Amino acid sequence: MGEETFGRALRHLRGNRTLEAVANAAGISTSYVYKLENGQRKPTRTVVEALEAATNAQGALIEASEKIGKKSVPDAEIIPPTATMSPVRTLDINDHYGETGEDATERRRLFGLAASAGIVGFDEIVRQELDHTTDRPRSAEDWDIARADHLHALRTRPPAQVIKDLSIDLYALRQQMHTTSGDALTELYRVAALLAVIQANALTRISDHGAAIRWWSTARKTADASTDLELRLLVRSEEAIHGLYGQREPETVLRLIENARQISRRPWPRLMTARAKALALLNRSKEAAGTLRTLHDHMNKGITGDRWDFFKPDQIPFAESWVAAYSHNEAAADAARDQVLQIIPERSYQYRMNAKLHEAISTAALGGANEGARLAAELIDSLPAGFQTNHILETARMVLRAVPLEQRERPAVAELRSLLALNA
C-alpha cells in the first residue's frame, strides 16, 4: 500500500515531464523511476530527497515515503553523481548519530524544505550526507572562513551565484544550530547574522527587495540574539546603506539610522556614510557634506570599521563621489571618483562601475544630457548580464532623474531609458 501511495504521488508530481527527464534531474535511472511509480520498488531516503528536488514536491514525496516503512532496498540502479562515487550503498539520514525521533524528523523536514526550494540537488544532498557522517560540526574558524569566502564572492561574482552558494551554507548552519546550545549557539548566532547580511545584500543586487527586507530582519534578530554590540551596529548599517538602491525611501533609511543610534551613540563609519548618501538623495547637500566632514574627524581620531571587513577605508571616497555627484559638484565628483578608481581593486566591479556612473549623473545634471546618458549606457553594456546588478542599474536610473526636464527627450536619454526598461 505504501509503495502505491508513493508511486501515485510521484506520477502526479511528474506531470507531463518524461520519466527520463525526472530521472536525469534526480540522478537515478529511468527504469528505477518507472518501478517506483508502479510500486515495484521502495525508495531509499536519498532517492526520495533527490526526487523531491527534481519534482519540487514541497515535502509530498517525503510524506508519502514515510508510509512505506523503514525497510531499505538495494541501490544498484542509482546513477552516481560523479565517476568517483560508488553506488554500493545510498546514505540514509537516519544512519547518522543513531538519529531517531525528533532529531531525525527535523532533519527530514529541513531536507524537504531545501530540496523543494531548489536549494539542494542530488549531488549536494549526497555531499552533505557524507559530511554529516564525520560527526564533527563545523568550527567557528570554519564558519569565519566561509563568511570571508561569501563576502569575497559578493564583491567579485554575479549575485545569483552568490545566493545559490550561500543558501547551501545557510541550510547547513540551520542544521548545526538545531543541535547546538550555550556559548556555541551564541557564536552561531553571530555567523547567522553575518551570512544573513550577505544574503540580503545579494538579494538586493538582483532586485528581490521583498526577500532582502525579510533577510535584513533575520540578520537583525540573530545579531541581537548574539548580544554583540558591534555586530548589531554592522547589520543595521548594512541594511541602511543598501536600502538606498531603490529598496527604501531615503527618509526610511534615515529612520533606520536613527534607530541604530538608539542602540549606541558610538561613531560608526558605515552608518555615517549611509546618512551622508541619504541626505544627498534628499537634496540636503550641506548636511551630507557636514556628515562626511564629521566622518573624517572620527577616522583621524582612530575610529575604524568592523572586524569582519565589511567596511573598508575606500568606501569613504566612494561616499564622497556619491555626495558630490548628487550635489552636482562636478569637480569634487571627478576628484573623488579618481581616488576610488585608484584604490578599489579591479575585481570589485560594483563600486568601480557606480563611481563611473557618478560622473554620468553630474554630466547629465549640468546640461550634458546626451553625453551623460550615452556614458551610462556604454558602462552598462560593458558588463556581462549577470553583473548588471540592481545597485548599478539603480545608479543609472539616477542619471535619468538628473537630466533636466527640457532635455529628457534627447535621443541618448531615450536610448538609456529603453535599456533600463529592458533590464527592469
Automatic annotation (TrEMBL):
Residue spans crossing the bilayer: none
InterPro entries: Cro/C1-type_HTH, Lambda_DNA-bd_dom_sf
Example GO molecular function: DNA binding
Domain HTH cro/C1-type residue range list: 8-62
SMART domains (UniProt xref): HTH_XRE (SM00530)
Pfam families reported for this sequence: HTH_31
Protein name: Helix-turn-helix domain-containing protein
